[in-house]
Amino acid sequence: MNSIHDMGGMHGFGRVEAEPNEPPFHERWEGRAGGIVETMSFPPGFPGDRFRYLRETLRPDLYLTQSYYEQWLYVAEQILLEAGMISAQELRDGRPAAGEAKRNDAMRRDVVWDYLHDRTHTGRKLEQGPCFAIDQRIRARNMQPEGHTRLPRYARGKIGTVTRHHGGHVLPDAHAHWQGPAPQHLYTVRFTARELWGEAANARDTIHLDLWESYLEPA
Amino acid sequence: MNGVHDMGGMHGHGPVAPEKGEPVFHARWEARMLGIRRGATFPSEVNIDRWRHIRELIPPHLYLSRSYYDHWYMSYVAALLQSGWATAEEIKSGHAGSGTAKRNDAMRPDQAWESQKTRGVFTRAVETPPLFAMGQRVRARNINPSGHTRLPRYVRGRVGIVGRHHGGHVLPDSNAHGKGEAPEHLYTVAFSMQELWGAEASPHDEICADLWESYLEPA
Amino acid sequence: MSQHSHGRDDSAKIADHHHIHSELPSDPALRVKALESLLAEKGLVDPATIDAWVEIYESKIGPRHGAKVVAKAWVDPAYKQRLLTDATKAIGELDMLGGQGQHMVALENTPGVHNLVVCTLCSCYPLPVLGLPPAWYKSAPYRSRAVLDPRGVLKEFGLELPEHVKIRVWDSTAEVRYLVLPERPAGTEKLTEEQLAALVTRDAMIGVAKVTA
Predict the structure, then answer these.
(1) Cβ distance of A144 and B143 shorter than 8 Å
(2) Which of A9, B30, C133, C210 is most buried (CB neighbours < 10 A)?
(3) What angle do CA B56, B57, B61 make, to 5 degrees?
C-alpha cells in the first residue's frame, strides 16, 4: 500500500531526536497498551502480517501524530472489531454488552515468558528451488499493490545484486489478507545509493533490503 | 523535496467525495486569507516558487490535517518571519511592535483587477536551442533534491515521449532559493501508465507532465 | 554544483519558522483575523483591497469564462483550430488571460481520448477561465489518485468510460495551465452559442464530467 508509512527517502520530518536514557515506556499506559497487544486473545489464525497492514490503514495525519503505542491500540481495536470479538458500541461504552458471556481462556501470566520466547517462525520449507542466485543482478518490480507489501516505493524499478538467500519465508502480501502463508524464497538485495537516489548520492554507500521472490525479476 | 506534498500515486487518502454546490469559500476567513495573499505587500524575494516551497515545508502532520487556506496562512506567516517582516510576537498578538513605521503604499482596491490580469508571466528567453525534439524518447532523471523541484517522485527514472515544447520558462528549482530565474526549455512529456505504475496498470492510458530540460536526459 | 543540490540550509531555516504553528490557536478564523489586523496596522494591506480581491473571485471570474471559450470553439471551427494550436492567443482574443492562466493549452476530448487535469504537487489550476478550484481538486485524495487510478476517480464522479477510450492525465507541474475542451453533446445543433455555454460545467472543463444537453 502506497501509504504514508512508506517513508524511505522522504524529506521534511526534521532531525532524528534521540532521547538519552529513554525508558521502555514513557507512560504507564504505554506499557499497558503493549501488554494488551502482546497477550490479548486474537481471532483464531490471525496472521501476524495483518497487524502491520492495519497500522498502515491509519489516517495519514494520525499516523504522523499518534504515538507508537496509541497506534498499537488502534490496531488492536481494528482486529477485534473486524473479527466481531467486540462491537463499536462496546468500545465506546468501555463495557461488554449486556448478557455477554465472559470467556475464560485469556493468556495466563505464567505462560507469558515462554510465549514471548517461542514465537512462530516465518521460515518455511519450499519445494521449488530459488529463482535467483547469489551475485545475480535483479530488478525490483514496479508494482502498486493497494494491500500490504514490503517492497518500498523507493526501490521499485531499481536494479540491485542478490547477496544472500534466506530460504522460504511467509509472504506478507498474501498473509496479511488471510490468503495463507504462501511462502516464497526471500533474498537480501544490495542497491547502491546512486541507483536509488541518483548521481548526487554517495558513490560508495549501499542499502540492503530483504525482498521476496515475487518482488523481483531478472535484470 | 520529497515531502508529503508529492502525492502522486499515494494510497490511503480515501475517496475524493466532491461536495455538491460547493461555495467559493467555506468560511469568511478563507476569503480574507485569499485577499491578503493577493492584495498585501509581500517580501519580493518570496516569488511563487519560493512560496510553493515554503508550503511544502509545512510540518507533514499539519500539511495533511489542515485545510487549504490554512496552508496559505501557515506559509504566509513562515514567509513573513523568514524575511524579517514580522516577529513571532507580532504574529501571536496580531499587533505591530511599538515603534513600527506604517507604510502607505499598499495595493489600492482599484488596482486589484489590473494585478489579476497582468501577473504571472513565466516565459523567458533561453539562449541555447532546445536539447530535445518532438517525439523524442527521454528519461526523467532520478534526482532527489531536498530543495524545491517540480519533478514528482512517481516520474523519476521513467521513460516518456516529448509531446510539446513550451519555450523557456523560469526554473523553480533555482528561483525558489534565490539563485535567479535560470530559465530552461520546458517540455510536456507523455508517459504510459504501465511505464509509471507497472504491468498491472492500464495498457493505453497516459500521464503527461511538464518538465524542464535539466529534469531530462536522452533515453 | 547543479541547481538541484541547492537548498538544504535554506529549507531548514524555513522549516524552523514553521514551528510557530504549535504556539498559535488552532482556529484559523482567529489567526487570519490577527494576521489581517497586523498587516493593516503596518500599512501592508488595505482591508478594502482584500474586499476587492474577494469580489473578483466570488463574482467577476468563474467557469462562465471557460464555458464561453468552449462554446465558441464548438460553433466556430476556425476558432477551435486557433484554440488547439495556441490556446494562450485564442483565449487572449476573448480577453480572458490573467494570473495562473497566462500560458494556456486546450485539450480536446474526442470519442477516443478523454483528458483529465490535476496538480499532484499542489493546486495549480487555470484561475482566469475557471475561477478558484473546488476543495476536492486541491485535496489529497484527488491529487494522489488522479494519476494512479483515473478511472476510479471518474467513477466517483459518476463517469464511467469504456475500456477503449484512452485517458490522458495532465499533471500541472509547471506554469502551463490546462483547459479541457469537452465533446459537444449530440442534439445541440439548434442551440445558440450562449445556450451552449450554459451547458458547459466547470467539472467538464477539468475532465471529471462530460457535457450533457
Answers:
(1) no
(2) B30
(3) 90
In the structure grid, which three cell numbers stand for residue A30, read together?
504505554
Quote the cell numbers at residue B57: 515545508
Name the pLDDT band for C7 (thresholds 50, 70, 90): low
Distance CA B78, CA B67 (A): 17
Q: Are A137 and A12 in contact (CB under 8 A)?
A: no
Q: Measured in Å, how far apart are chain B's first and last C-alpha atoms?
A: 24
Residue C3, pLDDT score:
44
Q: Cα(B145)–Cα(B130) distance, rounded to whole angstroms? A: 24
pLDDT at C1: 38
Cβ-contact C18, B189 below 8 angstroms: no
pTM to 2 decimals? 0.94
Q: Kindly determine whether residue B146 and residue C156, on different chains, have CB atoms separated by under 8 Å.
A: no
What secondary structure letter does DSSP report for A58?
A: S
Distance in angstroms (rounded) separating the CA atoms of residues A185 and A212: 6
Residue-level length of chain C: 213
Over residues B162-184, mean pLDDT: 98
How far does the CA of residue B216 sit from the closest CA of chain C (Å)?
13
Could you give the C-alpha distances from B83 to A46, B44, B45, C38, in angstroms and in order?
55, 9, 8, 16
Instruction: Please enumerate in sequence order all residues whose Cβ is within 8 A of that of B148, keeping only pairs 6 or more positions apart, or say none.
Output: B1, B49, B50, B52, B53, B56, B172, B173, B176, B177, C7, C11
Nearest residue in chain A measured CA to CA from C141? A60
- Cα gap B29→C25, rounded to integer Å: 14
The ipTM (two decimal places) reads 0.96
